[in-house]
Design goal:
- The protein has 4 helices and 3 strands.
- Helix 2 crosses helix 4.
- 20% of the residues are buried.
């Protein structure tokens, strides 16, 4: 994995967005989707964990169910293996997942 994200992606380069969700308003939705939009506009294939978790269960269910959260984390770990970069949002080090 490289340490910096080039301004423009090479074909097929994927990036995972890492950052805090739980305990923040709307699970930090604005930061995740702003980052996703910026990365997509530069040609990256983006793995947005907020989008993935919401495709499995609503935020309320995810917050209350360790089973759903565990499932999402396992899916993301497998997808992360195929990413070239990780895009770190402010506060990423406080992320539990």
């Amino acid at each position: 994995m490289r340490s910096a994200i080039p301004y423009q992606a090479a074909p097929g380069e994927g990036v995972y967005i890492a950052g805090p969700m739980r305990g923040l308003p709307n699970n930090n939705e604005k930061a995740f989707f702003d980052a996703e939009n910026w990365l997509v506009s530069r040609g990256y294939l983006v793995l947005n964990p907020l989008r993935i978790s919401r495709s499995i269960a609503p935020d309320e269910v995810m917050a209350e169910s360790p089973m759903f959260l565990g499932t999402v984390i396992e899916i993301e770990k497998r997808l992360l293996e195929h990413c070239t970069y990780i895009y770190l949002l402010r506060g990423w080090e406080k992320s539990v997942g």
